[in-house]
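User: I'm curious whether this sequence folds into something compact or stays loose and floppy. Could you predict its structure so I can see for myself?
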Amino acid sequence: MEEWSLIKTLVGDVQSQKTSALELVTLAIERIENSKEYDAIISLTKERAIIRAKEIDTQIANGKDAGRLAGIPFIAKDNFLTFGSETTAASNMLRGFEAPYQATAVNRLEAEGAICVAKANLDAFAHGSSTENSDFMTTKNPADKLRVPGGSSGGSAAAVMLGMAPFALGTDTGGSIRLPASYCGAVGYKPTYGLVSRSGVVAMASSTDVIGPITRSVDDAQLVLSCMSGRDELDATSIESDIKGTTAESSIEGKKIGVIKEFLGDGVSANVKQAIIYSIKKLEDAGASISEISLPSMDLALACYYILVPAEISSNLSRYDGQRYMHVAEGSKDLEESYLKSRTEGFGSEAKRRIMIGTYVLSSGYYDAYYRRAQLVRTRIVNDFKTAFNDLDFLVSPVAPSTAFKIGENTADPLQMYLADVMTVGASLAGIPAISIPIKTNDLPIGLQLMAAQKEDNRLLAFAKTVEGVIS
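Assistant: Here's the prediction. I'll summarize afterward.
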């Protein structure tokens, strides 16, 4: 599909009336309708989007400033509460749910003139790495329809690379923005934990969930991030933002970059290793100081993640009990049967698996053996990253050990599926910013992951923009 221009260019065209918000929204909806076979979209917000586009065009015609994203259509992952369509989190448990309010991130984007045109598919409740866990459909990778787009924000990444909108929103709990960005060839940004409010986003694991953009360029990612980040009284974990609206230039020369040894060893496919080493060589040729470092706790990160995150999932999903709202099983003879039937019918197999694991590690007699020890390991992971950034500016690694796998290839083996997250969960547990930048290849997309210390988002984005130009 034909690519969109940079967002700032499109905004300039809308503000100068060279084009209109209505034309951009109409084009986005047309592209969505023409790409239904990829199953990237759960629902459209067509009527509301057209109304908002006309309002923005009227503002501009009257000489008013319509915002930094004036007229730009975007797609929200369907775990963001939005008006104009259902919010399902791709789960039968929430099928038919109409949000009573919108996510803070969506409100802030709309305040800057952006227009939500659709809701993207995902692994149900964001539990997965391929979108195959969606209760509705499996999204197909734009680079190869036989392969997964990654997850859980697979619909968002596929939508951007199919040209449905200039950007999409994703959530990243253990790699769910970076992995689909890598598999589909997009830019995916996971900010410092708390930089974007989680209010109005269906919770997965509250201590690692973050909200970020999926785009075609670092410039676009930074602009979108600057519009939706910052403190929010509705989210006590949110932090102040100093994200600039435009990406500053950053010289590669003299930057100290650490290559994570554990992420280039056995288990990394030859084509991914070759692409990453090639990219690192380009950075070195541009003047970067490259050194191999070891983060010993990375060998424990995946196991730590899949103890802590299911524990939080079991807590967060307890509200879906069939008694208060949404899916309610019919024909139950008593309260206990109603609970059982509602949750059995409403949750998919992966949600059930994570609830059971989480409940187990939190149960009496196992809390100390699993959950408490995993929290101690998490502290070690945080400290390993802090130590590394005392001497280095950035860390670099692959996003995933392989390119996108075929649909159905790993569905019978949950452990193999979880291994797709092995290189992304560390940054999530440590709460540091990380970005996936596409490497130019002649085959399936591959992402280069860059990481920086907590709250160093501006520095990471500036450096990522320069790296983007070097490796693409």
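Summary: The chain is about 40% helix and 10% strand. The longest helix spans residues 367-391.
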